[in-house]
Amino acid sequence: MSRMQKTGLFIGAALAVFSLSRLGLFLVHRPYFAELSAAQTLFGFAAGVRFDLSISLTFLSLPFVMMNLPGAFFRGGRWTTAWGWTAYAILLAGALLLAGDTAFFGEVHRHTATELLMLGNDVHYLFDMAFGVYLPQLVLFIFFAAALGALWKKIIRQPETLPKSAALNFLLLVIFLFLGIRGSVTDKPFGTIDAFSRGNTAMGNLMLNGAFTAYHSALHADSANLRLMPLKVAAAALNMPEGDYPMQKNYAATSTGYNIVFILMESWGVKYVDSFGHNGYGVTPNFDRLAARGLKFANFYAAGQRSITGIQATITGVAPVNGIPALGFGLEVSNISKLGAIAGRHGYETIFLQASRRRSFMVNAIAGATGFADYYGMEDYPRLLNYPDYSASVFGWDYETLLFLKARIDKAKRPFIAYLFTGTTHTPYPPLGKQWEIKPADTSSEDGFLNTLYYSDWSIGEFMKAAEKEPWFAKTIFIFTADHAQVHYGNGSGGYREKFHTPLVIYAPGIFKEPKAVDTVGSQLDMLPTIIDLLGFDDSFSAMGDSLFRKTRQRAFCSEGEVVGIITDKGYLTHSLSDRLETGYFEGAAPQGYFDGLEKELLAENQITFSLLRSNRWAK
Known about the structure:
- By secondary structure, the protein is α/β, with parallel strands linked by helices.
- The chain has 2 domains: 3-220, no CATH class; 254-524 and 537-549, Alkaline Phosphatase, subunit A, CATH 3.40.720.10.
- The chain is built from 19 helices and 16 strands.
- It has helices at 3-28, 30-33, 38-67, 77-108, 123-130, 135-156, 166-182, 201-207, 210-220, 231-237, 274-277, 285-293, 307-316, 339-345, 363-369, 398-410, 446-467, 527-535, 594-614; strands spanning 248-249, 259-265, 295-297, 300-301, 349-354, 374-376, 416-421, 476-482, 504-507, 516-518, 522-523, 541-542, 555-560, 563-568, 571-575, 580-585.
- The strands form 4 sheets. Strands 6-5-7-2-8-9-3-10 form an 8-stranded mixed sheet, with helices on both faces. Strands 13-14-15-16 form a 4-stranded antiparallel sheet, with helices on one face. A two-stranded antiparallel sheet has the order 1-12.
- It is globular, with a radius of gyration of 27 Å.
């Protein structure tokens, strides 16, 4: 038997261990998976092999590569034996994690994620559980380990034969390991979000395994161990109700039948929007007209400084919190409220578009996981304009995207909610042609950004002109805001808050008859509740924010990597979760104790969000 054949048997054994674990998860937690049909169950088991292969090869690749190194020096039996048993030890550790994940799943109905980052504080607890209530399972695992070891020993001891082309075999093995780990031949490796791209949480959890979710959550989540204050103290500080799901809300409204068009604009900070920043750039005349005729929210803030944060906050109402992975990288394994899913339950057509390629930012999978039935990306849009270089826009063309949305809405047969994420204003900035180049063309400077902003604003103007002619326009509410502020070229004179200050305009002349400037302090975390309020959905949902039409607390929660902050109508405070960092009061001197109150509120927001998501008590 060649070393390559032994490697194949080891890989097969590893996949068998993961499949056996999945079967155990399915049987132990049968009520959770009862909603799945037979076809969905079989698909979950089959599709799960892809995740199993990826995570097993992630950790087993090194011993497999070492076992198969070409050359006479590496042909000895001891070499193969040493690396073979190394692979066994790694797989056994993975099997132990899978066993623990099956137990963990019963507690919160999701796979383990960032919890492994905190085991150092709970080793004594793990030992107590292993030798206590889980002692029978521990004994069973020991027998399993012995049986797996016997199989491993039998494979290792098989007499070795020399292949005809060791170097070619080694090259093919490396290619296989690389593709197996990535799980994809595209430019984006797949992750936990792909399991939920069909919008079915139970089937997604059946596909996944605890080793995969733990590893990917560790890659994409901060390792902060949030133990800032007891959960009850945090809830009391925020005046939240007692109970298992204190974040849950219900507006008990009546359905309005309105449509929603939500446009998330790439990097549109208030500095460059004259109707908000008043700096005279002159590149947003169409948007400024909408702001003058609609509801203009002058004190609106992004939840973070990344596009994925803006998407997460607006669709789910969940803020970025240290120790909790982002949407698309692990958050989706928790029970959270999802805008598309809620609208779909009310009979709405749900449409999601982004200007960039379908898999950019994992948004195609995020759209499906949050309940949007129709998704479109750059590959779907026909070219409409003669750009100098159509391929130069890495993040797509806003005009083509917006006009495609208009054409798709024209075909809608029911009320709809459409979510569109623009992209042309993302660096590198493409050449646009003389019509929009009001500054010298440049792929990375502020001049290049201003050109793309002028083009993007024109695209919005053309979209709105076309929309105004359609019968669905009168019952449609258009919501325009940004994923984050443009921070590359400074933030004006506003200091900390300008890092997050973004425009928000709600435009619906057939519904909101009078234009109005609104001073309410809001953020992206308020968008899910606001949309639910506007549509009159009588649904229970969970979100950090509240409807902008009902909001009483003048607060915006912001995240800047390891630093979190809170912005109010009077001042702001930033914190590292261990120390207060910066404070500011907008007019005069702050009252005594003002910042102490802000600090307590900020830490309480962090603690309760972290605790509820970790225990899967954010939403039912």
